[in-house]
Amino acid sequence: MKNIYDFLKNLKDEKRTKECQLLIVNDDKQAQIASDIVAYLGLKPFVLSDFRANFGDDLLSFSDELQDITKTLSSYYSYKKLDKILISPIRTISYPLPKERCFDSFTINFADTIKIDKLKSKLYNWGYYFVDIVTSEGEVSIRGDIIDICPLGSEFGYRISLFDDEVESIRQFDIEDQKSTKDEIETFSINPAFLALDEESLELINEQIETVSSDAFIKDIHSLGFWYLDKLGEYLPQNLSSFITQDALEELDEVYVFEEKRINKDKFLLTLQIYNSKNYQEIAPANVKEFISFHKEKKITIISGTEAKVKGYDLDLNDKNIKYVFENYILNLVGRDEVIISLNKEIKRRRKKKVKLVLDELQLNDYVVHEKHGIGQYKGIEPVTVMGAKRDFVIVMYAGEDKLLIPVENIDLIDRYIADGSSYAVVDKLGKGSFAKLKEKVKDRLFAIANDIIKIAAARELVNGIQINTDKKILEDFQKSAGFDYTKDQKRSIREIFTDISSGRVMDRLLSGDVGFGKTEVAMNAMLAVILDGFQAIFICPTTLLATQHYHSMQKRFNEFGISIAKLDGKTPAKEKTHIKKGLESGEIKLVIGTHSLLEIKTNNLALVIIDEEHKFGVKQKEKLKHLREDVHIFSMSATPIPRTLNLALSKLKGMSSLLTPPTERLGVRTYVKEYSEKLIKEIVLREKRRGGQLFYVHNNIASIEAKKSDIEAIVPNIKIQVIHSQIKPNDAEKIIDAFENKEFDILLATSIVESGLHLPNANSIIIDGADRFGIADLHQLRGRVGRSNKEGFCYYVVEDKKQITDDAVKRLVALESNSYLGSGTALAHQDLEIRGGGNIVGEAQSGHIKQIGYGLYLKMLEDALSSLSGENKPEKKTVDIKLAISAYISDEYIHEDRVRLELYRRLSKASDIQDVYKIEEEMEDRFGKPDIYTKQFIELIIIKILALDKGIQTISSYEMNITFTKADDTKESIKSPSKDDDDIIATTLRYLRK
Hints:
By secondary structure, the chain is of the alpha/beta class. The protein has 32 helices and 42 strands.
């Protein structure tokens, strides 16, 4: 920081800034510092991303950096003033980058004439992906007279509506929910998704890509194009007057381990260096006001993002001796005659990525659960003609090749079957009534569980809780000392806990959030509040390893607040155990962390019990926990999210908080999809070893896992491997994980999930064998095991033979490869997990029942049981059978993609309010143009369904011009339509239902 500042300030004072056109730094962090300095000195910085690929790498894993580099270069070249400086990490600038002529843009204006074929070929040459639905930058979708496009660098898409070939309207739309804004805009501009190439240049690059041997999963311009720019690229250090920092020079040898395609190494050695500054010192003043008073005679500048921050530091905004700069720069220096202090905290300037819309909820051959008929296999949607009228039906296969046809308006009766990853679905028999009996059995069991939950809650209601004072300045200091800013979820959860423990009622709250999202930090706030009021707190974990991990992190945080912490678990020596137990009885020890052995101890004045991963405790231990629970506050934490609906049912009984935002300092995980080869495995293992890390290797088959171990040992000799799977005793498994955490071996070879609550920051690469056989949720979960610390994680999805795997699996893997950002746990992964999380609440013992009817239905029934015992009687779900002789379906000419039609069918069938239906219709018109007659009639059919349910009608049927309505009590009423045309039958039915 000081060297760059001193150097640039001199250039500026001597009016020689034009001499530095390119500043070469070592990484992203230094680039950010340099950017702040350049901007502070009144110049214009352009910062290139740190591009850490080696020649030939599959660039899909680096798509964020490459898009960033093209955006920056594009704005750099279009900024024509001379006060600009390009700042680049050394790895990026060592490669040839696209020349100025590769950047171009064009605008589309209202009333322009568009030749679709010309536009298509231009966008293709510029690297746009043609897709069904535009969900991220660089994609375009052309559907008849509607064009959706999301240009690079844009947070939303643009929807162009054509009349013939003239632009009739342009609107922005949200790429998450596909809805467009009401206001039309006049014009917008489109820049290249890759580079502004003509047909010839693109052809040249593609020819080269075809000929190379690469292990990229899909060979195209996006995965390999950047490596073959040739005449379109240039080495910028040769063309711009450059300076390099000493840190960057120190990286040189490491960068040039792979030197293919990079500029000659000597070029950097001959570049002018930025030397050590003797004029400035970097500072981190603890007390800003005091520090300024020591340097009153110097020129003082305070940088702050807001005025409020300045007031927060108790500084006077009207002080004439201080110059205030309101920007987000971070710059802290003291020199002979000036002091610069920034009040801003470092925030990772991460690009906000939107989670993609997940449409493929149901895939062909997925298992589904029908509420009445049980588990079957989904076989798609097929049109069926009944009495001359065409309708769409969902086909579900049952045992013995029996087919169930469900009209699409009732698609909400089926749900995806989710049980534990390890269990396979058993298909039921149609019409046997055995599923109904099974449901009754499960229902009885669920009533017992729900009864238990409610009893405990009622007993706690009658007891007065210990009241804790949470309004103390020291608690604020504790939050400030965390070294990072809390996420908004953390702040909200802490507020909720503080409200609970200061209310005089007994707290019972569950906090759910992914590993590494900061649950422990929230818990520590509660502990501190309790201890400051003179009470004791205990923290219980399911394993000694977790206890040890929590113990270390809490020791660090509580140290400066003078709080003594003890750890008590199976490994604590007997003498120490006695000492700790005495300390707890006398009240001398305020906080103890440990395993379930804590349930036996006596305390002096216990006020708070925190339970980590409560669902992992056995029944007996849970019983003991209940006895601790008279007036003690209980706070449980879980790494699996809980389904929202169950959340509501339970929230009447216990408090629910959740952490959904990842912390700022975590890096994403770099994801690769590769075909298996020994060379690849060796390279991955050695790459991780070189940086002193460890690896997970996931091989999901217990029978062949030992053979796999021998394979790896043969490929990489002298490597230490341990195996872990469900058949290994829990004690032994814990020992193995312990040894892994202590870096006693290199590779943990495991069947699917490596323990969920664990934080193993030194294991930062994961290899997933046979990745095409995992679901998207599992793949995402597994990837989340790495990249937990400030080291970048690497995840390799490995497949045996890419020619053998299905197109769907290829799509799934490639989507994961290019979406490696945090929290990209697509709605689907979240759904699966939520549903499993819901299962956890009721305990492991229920997994048998869950397997028989699937989690989704199980939780629905648990909610019903809870509601009816709490005295809220939910009306039973009714259905209506519509047998009108009308053609009503979303036609495949109006919407071509099956998955989009399926999604709209699902949403329409779940709608319970007519207004919802109109909203969906409006959205369909916006996305796909005016609906055709059959689609319109399907929407009217859904409205008929909603009105009929309100009136308690069970069946509506028509024959010729007669329409018959049958009610729940089997009374019938018939009316006549003016004709047997579809529109007359619909209009007559609606008139009857609306009266």
